[in-house]
Specification:
Blueprint lengths: L1 E5 L3 H13 L3 E5 L2 H10 L4 E5 L7 H10 L8 E5 L4 H9 L4 E4 L3 H19 L4 E5 L3 H13 L3 E5 L2 H10 L4 E5 L8 H9 L10 E5 L4 H10 L3 E4 L4 H33 L9 H18 L3 E8 L2 H8 L1 H18 L5 E6 L2 E7 L3 H16 L10 E7 L8 H17 L5 E3 L2
Parallel strand pairs: 1-2, 1-3, 3-4, 4-5, 6-7, 6-8, 8-9, 9-10, 14-15
Antiparallel strand pairs: 11-13, 11-14, 12-13
Helix pairs in contact: 1-5, 2-3, 7-8, 12-13, 13-14
Length: 426
């Protein structure tokens, strides 16, 4: 990336060269406006830095001539000045100067240039999957080539119907669509359809393009859920900048959501066994029981207590005890359905909440678990567990505390009867 410094004083050109090169740009100089304009005709630059007052012309005039040329119309253009004349500064902004800095504000200049380098670097190395909807083959080919040359993966469709079908089965990072399309469905209808989906897909950013200059249409599209709107014919630099901004925002949102999901998992999962923890159980169990009572289906609870677990810890150490708990948890998790809740209640106690399961079937499941645990041999040890089974009453609303208390009493009965047994509540 290259910058052009335009200043009549060699000493200040040297200072600016140091600042701008430190920010990551190669630097060329011009001591007059005319020489700079000649350089800009025959060379590509990514940034121009000009002083407000030059030896051969006013910096404002120089800037207006840059903005008048299609090849330099969109180059970032910064002006440095020691003047604080508001009228002169306003003139500079009016002719297209991007930013104005005091000559002594070298730190500000450096930060701005570094930001330009970062943004242009990101635009050249974007990543993401684009759903692109455009019925003009010529426009589509040019835009697709532009996006792919900057690192984006593009799926192009001619109709909104095809795009909508693809969107539902493929993960996209952004949607780019025209308003007028072949088929029955317009780009506006596609926006509404995508935003009506009941999933995280409905949050994918949508950038709409159109040749219409109708402000009412633009406002309606934004109200329908489009994130942005760009008029045709689109400038390559503008389209890339808008896409990059939305892709960056989506990546940040995805990262935040992933962190939130991880934090939720940490809050709800037992770190040793990977099962749900007591907090999650106490949060979800009342809702499960209320649902069972409301819809009149049975629900049972199995309380599992590893026999003589303290002795295992005292004899073989806590590391071995952890292995035992992990193996127990795996056996219980593997034996249950997706709709069942398996949780470590605390210590060596585990709870299994079985939806659509009566006490008879719960006892049978508990007996199979008892046998599996007896045959497990974690860390080479013979272990057993005692089981208590309780069923909710559909005749009278049952609180989770009551159900747990009944299963706990059954566990104590199993322990008193010699352990390694399944006991159903009385």
């Amino acid at each position: 990336m290259r910058a052009l410094i335009v200043d009549s004083y060699v000493s200040y050109r040297t200072i600016l060269t140091s600042v701008i090169s430190d920010a990551g740009l190669d630097v060329e100089h011009a001591e007059t406006g005319e020489k700079a304009l000649d350089l800009l005709k025959n060379n590509r630059f990514d940034l121009v830095c000009v002083s407000m007052f030059l030896s051969d012309m006013d910096g404002v005039i120089f800037s207006s001539r840059i903005r008048a040329e299609p090849s330099t119309k969109h180059i970032p253009l910064i002006m440095v000045t020691s003047s604080d004349d508001r009228r002169e500064l306003d003139k500079a902004i009016a002719v297209g100067v991007t930013e104005i800095f005091a000559k002594k504000n070298l730190k500000g200049i450096g930060k701005y240039v570094a930001n330009v380098v970062m943004q242009q670097g990101e635009a050249k190395t974007m990543s993401g999957k684009v759903l692109y909807v455009e019925d003009s083959k010529t426009v589509a080919a040019m835009t697709k080539e532009l996006l792919e040359s900057h690192g984006l993966e593009v799926d192009h469709f001619v109709t909104a119907e095809e795009a909508y079908a693809a969107f539902q089965v493929t993960d996209y990072d952004i949607v780019l669509t025209d308003v007028v399309l072949e088929g029955q469905m317009s780009g506006s209808a596609l926006v509404r359809a995508l935003r009506s989906l009941e999933s995280s897909k409905a949050r994918v950013p949508i950038l709409v393009m159109s040749g219409y200059k109708d402000d009412t249409r633009k406002i309606e599209l934004l109200r329908s859920g489009a994130n942005d709107y760009v008029s045709k014919p689109t400038l390559d630099e503008e389209l890339l900048a808008r896409l990059n901004n939305h892709l960056t925002s989506k990546r940040m949102l995805d990262r935040i959501e992933a962190q939130q999901a991880r934090l939720h998992e940490l809050a709800m999962k037992d770190q040793l066994t990977g099962l749900y923890n007591r907090h999650y159980l106490m949060e979800i169990a009342p809702a499960k029981l209320s649902e069972a009572f409301r819809h009149k289906f049975t629900c049972s609870l199995i309380l599992v207590d590893a026999d003589k677990f303290k002795l295992i810890n005292d004899t073989h150490g806590h590391a071995v005890g952890d292995i035992v708990l992990q193996e127990l948890a795996k056996v219980m998790q593997d034996s249950c359905r997706n709709e069942d809740i398996v949780a470590r209640f605390g210590g060596e106690e585990f709870v299994i909440l079985l939806s659509h399961c009566d006490a008879k079937n719960a006892v049978e499941k508990a007996e199979r678990l008892r046998q599996a645990i007896e045959n497990l041999r974690p860390a080479g040890l013979k272990i057993t567990a005692s089981f208590g089974v309780a069923e909710i009453s559909l005749a009278k609303r049952c609180e989770f505390g009551e159900l747990f208390k009944a299963a706990d009493a059954a566990v104590y009965e199993a322990k008193d009867a010699g352990r390694n047994k399944v006991v159903r509540e009385k």
